[in-house]
Amino acid sequence: MFAPRVLASMIGALVAFAIATYLLNGSLLSTAIQTLVCAVLLQVGYFIAVLFLVWKEARDRRKLSSGKASIESASDDKQSGKISIRRLNRPGHSNT
């Protein structure tokens, strides 16, 4: 999501909403209040969409790193008699 494009689209949608609301109601105050509520709802939707994208990216990175760790541990096990630094520095390993 490119922020300037989203902002321009949101402003366009709010203008169209305000025009339609004014034509239906004929009240400037009611149009302003409803357009403000619509703007808040659009912002909440945008925030939730960004959170979803961040969550999805983090999940994909975790899957990628866990798959990479299993490949590294398999290659480390093939080297008998050698202790790999990578193997000792994995999360959850205690170096005490």
Radius of gyration computed on alpha carbons: 26 Å
Shape: rod-shaped
Strand content: under 5%
- The count of helical stretches stands at 3
Low-confidence stretches: none
Structural class: mainly alpha
- Describe the sheet with the most strands: none
What would your notes on this structure say?
- This protein has about 100 residues and is mainly alpha-helical.
- The protein has helices at about 5-25, 30-80, 85-90.
- The model has no long low-confidence stretch (mean pLDDT about 80).
Helix-strand blueprint:
Layout: H1 3-25, H2 28-78, H3 85-88
Helix pairs in contact: 1-2
Q: Could you list some keywords that capture this structure?
A:
0% strand; rod-shaped; mainly alpha; single chain; 3 helices; 96 residues
Task: Please outline what is shown here.
It is built from 3 helices and no strands.
